[in-house]
Amino acid sequence: MRKPKIVILGAGYGGLMTAAKLQKTVGVNEADIKLVNKNDYHYETTWLHEASAGTLHHDRVRYEIRDVIDRNKIEFIQGTVEEIKTEEKRVILENGELAYDYLVVGLGAEPETFGIKGLKEYAFSIVSVNSARQIREHIEYQFATYNMEAEKKDERLAIVVGGAGFTGIEFLGELTNRIPELCREYDVDFHKVKIICVEAAPMVLPGFDPELVNYAVSQLEKKGVEFRIGTAIKEATPEGIIVGKGEDEVEEIKAGTIVWAAGVRGSSVIEKSGFEAMRGRIKVQPDLRAPGHDDVFVVGDCALIINEEINRPFPPTAQIAMQQGEVCARNLAALTRGKNDLETFTPDIKGTVCSLGDDDAIGIAFGKKMVGGKASFMKKMIDNRALYMLGGPSLVLKKGKFNIF
Amino acid sequence: MRKPKIVILGAGYGGLMTAAKLQKTVGVNEADIKLVNKNDYHYETTWLHEASAGTLHHDRVRYEIRDVIDRNKIEFIQGTVEEIKTEEKRVILENGELAYDYLVVGLGAEPETFGIKGLKEYAFSIVSVNSARQIREHIEYQFATYNMEAEKKDERLAIVVGGAGFTGIEFLGELTNRIPELCREYDVDFHKVKIICVEAAPMVLPGFDPELVNYAVSQLEKKGVEFRIGTAIKEATPEGIIVGKGEDEVEEIKAGTIVWAAGVRGSSVIEKSGFEAMRGRIKVQPDLRAPGHDDVFVVGDCALIINEEINRPFPPTAQIAMQQGEVCARNLAALTRGKNDLETFTPDIKGTVCSLGDDDAIGIAFGKKMVGGKASFMKKMIDNRALYMLGGPSLVLKKGKFNIF
């Protein structure tokens, strides 16, 4: 009997968890498993804001895929996915193609710019190791250039963060910790630096407990962040951004750095491959398969799951992606063994913690609200847990966060 | 009796040495001494190529002026000199002015671009702490951006160094040591990086021993430097440089970074103040005074002294500037005490070492040629000696180079 070919696209939280669980449950003789990823490393998407601000080196937020997979059971292929041909059961890569019997799509997210002019050209997004270190270096270069100009341009030192959601707030927390270091490094007066957070929605961290949100805003304001809430970015330019002000008026905010952290969408490969999707996210069946495609599972940022309680999609998180990976692996194992009774996925939200820098955070865990050092400790434990689940204790020791006080 | 007012402009090697020696020989009741400098720190001009390449942190190449002057004897004024009004015996600063009885001009050098189009706009010069860290960050940003572009531009990783004189060669030595680190940091293939040294003159390091020059060129070539000797830069552009090729032809060399290290001239304040000068350098009298100005001494890069043996000016070096500072201080002390019999300055060239990175160098010292580790050791001793002469043993311990093998 021919072994089924399982192809996993993407080694993010969802794809890598699927691989990690599959290699434990499926024998070498049961399936032929391939894992495809653009880079030869996995990165912690939820830590990228730290690498972007320069508070954590980018090598701390990534690890080699070959360190966590069992190469006797899984073949790793470094490649960029261009398209999925579902009718032909083939995946087209930049340099080659792969046939599959079962496919796991875990291709992650891309920045969603909502068609705002100039964002693609002039704003940075916190989406990968490459983009994180470019943001870090861009900000450093602005600071390094400041004292070289005969007429000092204070706007060089201004940083606009578009979006007061999770990524925006976590990035602001790191950035405000980093600025004093940058001021010392480049002999810049701290008071010349401006950090402006622009958010189109009428609130910071929508969906979060209002008391915790107030704490976060007040902590960030104390560290110098200026919030412009209910303010939409109309355009990004080489000089900064144009925002709406009142009915018809606009205002220019000059800034040397613009970081767009106001939204992501699923991979563009989804639509290119003909899946029905909303902003690149496929509304999956309870067993995580794409509707009409019994051989395609979708996990992570490309999967859309509705929270029935509020009739809105769950925000895509690492927590959910990893839980999906586990269910996906079990369902794949079942199919491999000829069982068609698949498990239903139900997210189990254990808690949510939003960091405000290395030393502060807000969150709810085990049903309890927490702020400050306690929440920050919890955040680090969550980060270490993700390492543990994907790579076991040795990965925690290698990449874990132990700067706990 | 009124105390004479001595004003020293510039805290480079010449000015700071004048101050350091004056405070040892002249009593508080003998003279009123002021030292003016743009920054509150002195920097090692001869170490800037290291900070520019990123092999030595810029804080290692500077120290606070107040750490080396005796503030009971010398008043430090942070200010930028705009003009010297010799008739009125006054110095105009950006924010104020100072009267003097005796003046020491040690205002240092500026890049000389020989009117080459685009160099001021698109090339960096190794001239200050500010410019050094901007060069370092510019190169890092080019590397950080490389992997972010869908279509990779190898020219981003190309670095053109204009000039194969002392600064150019020493910078190349550091740069070639730094590139492998940058490649690791930004996941860049080492073979994609190009370092091109363009020199209009027909030789590398003119005036240096040919055997040593051959060693230097071959060592740098081994580390990836491509030499384009006898090649003149016609223009610098945002994309790179245009060089002459043969009679009428030109060639474009695309590069993300252009560093101009092919020449300096004396401060532009010299000409602005009406001194007779050649490229901002005043041909001083044997006692270091400017011709026709018995109250103005000139030291360092603004002073021109002829080497009678070859009937050409001595190249301005830290060694000569410090020796001038010593003589200048003794002559000022003499004038203060009413003596008009001033000392004649004669350079005493003890040796010259050109570094080729942290671990290699070429040089002549005590009449002996040396290369490799031995020459590199000598270079570090010369660097430590400059610290010792300006700030004593404590400064050597704080900023000295002890990475000796």
UniProtKB/TrEMBL annotation, chains A, B:
Top-level division of the source organism's lineage: Bacteria
Keywords, sorted A to Z: FAD, Flavoprotein, Oxidoreductase
Name of a matching Pfam family: Pyr_redox_2
One Gene Ontology MF term: NAD(P)H dehydrogenase (quinone) activity
Cofactor(s) required for function per UniProt: FAD
InterPro entries linked to this entry: FAD/NAD-bd_sf (IPR036188), FAD/NAD-binding_dom (IPR023753), NADH-Q_oxidoreductase (IPR051169)
Family stated for the protein in its record: Belongs to the NADH dehydrogenase family.
Protein name: NAD(P)/FAD-dependent oxidoreductase
Native species: Mesobacillus zeae
